Amino acid sequence: MAGTTVETSRKAAAGRLPAGVYLLGFSLFAMGSAEFLLAGVLPAVAADLDVTLASAGFLITAFALGVVVGGPPFAVLSLRWPRRTALVATQGLFAAGIVAGLLGDYQVLLLTRAVSGIAYAGFFAVAAVTAISLVPPDRNARASGVVVSGLSVAMVVGGPAGTLLSHFVQWRGAASGLSWP
Fold first, then answer.
1. Which helix (H) or strand (E) holds 119?
2. The dihedral of CA 162, 164, 167, 169: what is its sign?
3. Of 16, 25, 100, 144, which sees the most CB atoms within 10 A?
4. Is the pLDDT reported for residue 5 higher than 60?
5. pTM for the full model?
6. Do residues 71 and 125 touch, judged by C-beta distance below 8 A?
7. pLDDT of the residue at 53
């Protein structure tokens, strides 16, 4: 009986994914939440920045264009970097874009949304490759699933939670995670 318990414990330990895989998934959750938050607060953004609702909507388009147009070249460029460097650089660029956008006017926010989209795409590409490199081949699908689920949870929970938070601390406060005057 004791041998069975030890064997079961070893199988369970062998089935666990490294903490780094979950960290990559959490990072995509945080980045995705910041991305999806804007959709829920567009009227507040338009009013605060004194632009039309359509112009505020273009902030979402700018992010998407950054992902689609800038993401692939950035991902290819970052292949020459060590993965850790690429992950930290893309997260840093994403965070800097968010902060700069929150402090600026509409034009600054528009530009930083595109830059953040590029960083987001670069991070996603490197995170996916990194996750599968951290596990044996028979765990690749599970590791990829954990990383991608960070984005899925951001879509279902992060964006709506940020929108709810914005009702209490305004859209800039929700986007930064802090109260905004």
1. helix 106-133
2. negative
3. 25
4. no
5. 0.82
6. yes
7. 95
